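Sequence of DNA translocase FtsK 4TM domain-containing protein (Hungatella hominis).
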Amino acid sequence: MPETTKKKTTSKTTAKKGTNGKVGRPKNTTSRRKAAEPEPEFIRSEVIIIISFAAAAILFLSNFHLCGVVGDFLRSLQLGIFGGIGYVAPVLMFAGTCFYISNRGNPRATFKLAAVILALISLCGLGELLFGTRLGAGGKIMDIYVTAAASGKGGGLIGGLLAEGLISIIGTVGAYLVILVLIIISAVCITEKSFVNLVKSGSGKAYHHAKENMDIQREIHAERKEERRRIREEQKLRGVNLDATKLEAPEEYDYDMEDEAAYSAEAEEDIDVHARRLAAVSAVEVTENRKNAAPEVRPNPADIFRGSIFPKPGEAEAAAEERKRGENMGAAGAFQTAAQAVDADLPHVYSASEDSVPFDADDAVPFVTEDLWESTAHLRSAESDAGAFDESDDYGTSETLFVKKETKTLEEMEVAREELYPTDEDDKGVNYSDTFSIPEEPKRVVTASGKVIETDTEALQKKVEKKKAEKAEKEKEEAGDLSVVQEIKQKEEVVKKEYVFPPVTLLKKGKSSGPFSDKEYRETAIKLQQTLQNFGVGVTVTNISCGPSVTRYELHPEQGVKVSRIVGLADDIKLSLAAADIRIEAPIPGKSAVGIEVPNKENNMVYLRDILEAEEFKNHASRIAFAVGKDIGGQVVVTDIGKMPHLLIAGATGSGKSVCINTLIMSIIYKADPEDVKLIMVDPKVVELSVYNGIPHLLLPVVTDPKKASGALNWAVAEMDDRYKKFAQYNVRDLKGYNAKVENIKDIEDENRPKKMPQIIIIIDELADLMMVAPGEVEDSVCRLAQLARAAGIHLVIATQRPSVNVITGLIKANVPSRIAFAVSSGVDSRTIIDMNGAEKLLGKGDMLFYPSGCPKPVRVQGAFVSDTEVSAVVDFLTEQGMTANYNPEVENQIASAPAAGDAKGGGNDRDEYFVQAGKFIIEKDKASIGMLQRMFKIGFNRAARIMDQLAEAGVVGEEEGTKPRKVLMSAEEFEELLEQGY
Ligand SMILES: Nc1ncnc2c1ncn2[C@@H]1O[C@H](COP(=O)(O)OP(=O)(O)OP(=O)(O)O)[C@@H](O)[C@H]1O
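Predicted 3D structure, token representation.
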């Protein structure tokens, strides 16, 4: 009985509490309590952190015997449990506590904390394996604790348990492996960085390093080749018949190995050099026999190394033949052939070469030994006597003659090359006249093959001098030009800073939308069905697509239901759903359903960053991809401006046009290099696009003056014509073809080489302002560009808030096939933009009907949003990186010098060409109105006003009278008279 009473009392109290808490208490008390609620939680966290800090400090200091008896006990406890890790355990514990408290409730933080604990345990295990004392047979686990507590070594009790356990199961090596794996796993979990990628990037770097080395090798190889070619040419100048001296190393063999793979080429090269040098050594002997016949002709050092001069008569031919036979043998064959040529003289040296196939660059080195040098000493001395080989020359020493195996590093290779070819001071040229004396009198020169050539020395001397003078003059000229060229180049270099794409982190990321409320959509669908049913229209809702700002319900009408009946019930549906506005798409293109678009209760913004990060944008092939927004199904919409090829954006003020243009420009900034895409921005509103001034994509500063704008359009027309001429010249059809062709041109040098052309996008924010100033001209330019510029890679993006027919004229409309309609006030405006109703039902704030060319019907899209702050951040990033605009002065000048719009036909102070007609018209109508002139002659306000002033000056009309029209002061006859007088 007492128990029952107690229960009752409890329940009563609970009930009371509930009542008091929720309803009974006055409102202000509740709100005060709500405000006070976070306090206990906050205080608790603070207290825990402070206490854990104090505990950690005591534990830490204990490790260093700073906390008395208790401290000593704590020390032995920590070291006994964690071993060496015990020294840092208090710090880790404190950090862990703080981390846990600040991330309470976050499962990811808990997971990370677990990973840290795992790492701690694994480290203890590793410490024990490395520094701990092993338990022998019969050893107790507590022995580890005692040892660790005393010495602080190893991994303590935890490490001991882990290490001993693992060793007993999988042995010591296994234990190491498992513990390392555990450490790596915990590191991956803590850092969330991929270990595999780390290894990959490491090996990638090694690969790149090797590749770079290979490239350098290749360059050196090319340099050598060039050097030899030059030396050969110089030799020709000296009058030595190379045809006759090329017997040992004919050109096609020696120098025409253009296409070999770099490494094998290098190997062949080395082998080749050895072979030729050896042949040279043998040639020395031969030369001795000829000494009397041609005493003055000394071999070019380079030729000695090539082994091309003075082979034994007949031997060279044999070698050439041999080589022909063994052409496919590659370097090894070459080496053998050369070796065979001297084999008879040096059998003891070359015996090693017999088993040298397959041949290898490294293998080649030992063949040319110091022994060989010693053994050929007699030959050299003979040659040196003959004056054909001088040891004192820097090319003749044993160190330089042989390429040693040690000359492997790049610098050493370079040094060796310098030594081998001392004449290689490219800039100075090869000065043979200093090295070799040219005979005073005509001489008979005997070439290697035994040919006798009569050389006219004087002529030769003159030739050399002439060549030298020519060269000096050329150098002088070049030096003169150089400063200018350098200046230009420097400028170009400054400008050609590599474009760094701004990081997407500069943009705001959208929050993930709340969970899809299935129930709510179902209810709306049922309501829809019910409403239509009430009017006798049977439909079934077949699909619901939920977009960022509207949801589309797809209805399938029953047999015999007319689509027009559903459309006619739009207002009733609106009423029953209590929706601000609905749009009916009847039928949905490509579906046998009618779509009813109902605005969402909550409008989810589509942030530009979300679209830029989407695969659709990232993987889009076009450089001028435009991140439009998300469609009704929440799918990312990305389009190619190049395919549009021109775009008209129209909508009432505040509907989102400027934001749309910003997203378009930002898409280009994030996708295209300024080398490939250039922008021209026309912003008569001044404030909208000026923020972009300075970005590298701009071809000229943002044009804010409407008069200059028509100049910019005229420039674009001229550029388009120019491009077409170039296309015709290169026989291509469009920009893509032209750029591809230009890229493949190889035979034209850099300066004259035609440059690749960028795509140009002309963005006009407010066409109406331009059309006011110079309607005729602007319309003409826009139409010309729109008709023809697609293939030339010039695209127009035109925005206007006045979708009236005198701004978006029929001509412009016909030539700008892609449209974006934002919210407009009437169906008439909607029809002006997209030739159908619908835009008047849009919700504003980026809600658009996107109607690209080739699409049968417009698609409803919620435009991406980018704020002015984000735009500024991106522009600042580009300018801070030094990527500023390199405005084209040519374009600027052209635009500045273009006649101001409106003046084009009028001309300065002169009488306007419409003066006479305007005078007659005004007299005839007896009404002097500027607007009337504008309409009649299809001219801008400025021009019409100027004509009126001229008429007033001539006395045809009176002075201005405020808002009243001017008086007409002349009759038709009087005006005729005036004209006859030559006015
Ligand atoms: N895609 C969008 N998502 C969300 N809000 C948007 C979006 N586009 C525009 N808005 C909102 O609408 C406002 C007006 O946009 P915007 O300045 O682009 O209009 P506009 O059509 O250019 O107007 P005007 O013709 O007067 O310059 C913006 O400040 C912004 O708050």
